[in-house]
Amino acid sequence: MHQIIQRAKEEKRSLLETEAKELLKEYNVPVPDFKLIQSEEEVTGLAKEMTFPVAMKIVSPEIIHKSDAGGVKLGIKDEKEARLAYQEIIRNIKKYNQEARVKGVIVYPMLPKEVEVIVGMINDPHFGPVAMFGLGGIFVEVLEDVSFRIIPLEEEDAEEMIREIKGYKILKGIRGEPPRDVPAIKEVLLKVSKLAMENPEIKEIDLNPIFVFEQGLQVIDARMML
What we know:
- The chain is of the alpha+beta class.
- It has helices at residues 3-10, 17-26, 46-49, 79-96, 138-141, 155-163, 168-172, 182-198, and strands spanning 35-37, 54-59, 72-76, 104-109, 115-124, 128-135, 146-150, 204-212, 217-219, 222-225.
- It folds into two domains: 33-109, 2-Layer Sandwich (Dna Ligase, domain 1); 115-225, 2-Layer Sandwich (D-amino Acid Aminotransferase, Chain A, domain 1), CATH 3.30.470.
- The protein has eight helices and ten strands.
């Protein structure tokens, strides 16, 4: 069992966002550089480690929907704003759930908003691990434009998953928009398949959103439930 998963199981919780991203990095899935801040003092010197503007989000096993709890701050321009944002996030979380275990605040650079996709996995009691793919945002929430395949995935499975959603035209580039890096999406699907096979303790994976650029992609938010 992976030591990150072992630690989470011992503490009777799912993976923290920082842990999920560490695990993704081990499987060479691109995530933005990030830092976990556990005190207001640690904000000092942040400018030396990453480029502003940054995003800041609460890290707590009890806070799943971070925005609802007031645990997300975006577009922070400098260390002074970061310090105020840290204070406000901690204050909001205490108000939202006094029992929440606060592990810190994750900080990472803001990236230009791009075409969003979602990659997921659920460990189905009948079929075992099943991969899911779709465009992010309204496409997955309202139109439910998603595809599924039983894991393990072969290259052709990942290719088919991407091509069969209605939003595939957006990835290929429409109305003057450039095409996005479809091979990079395929790689992530294959790596998530491998991650799920090698770590059966993971019940659910939710990588949403993933920003897909003309070249490459970045997983902005990651959840893994045990």
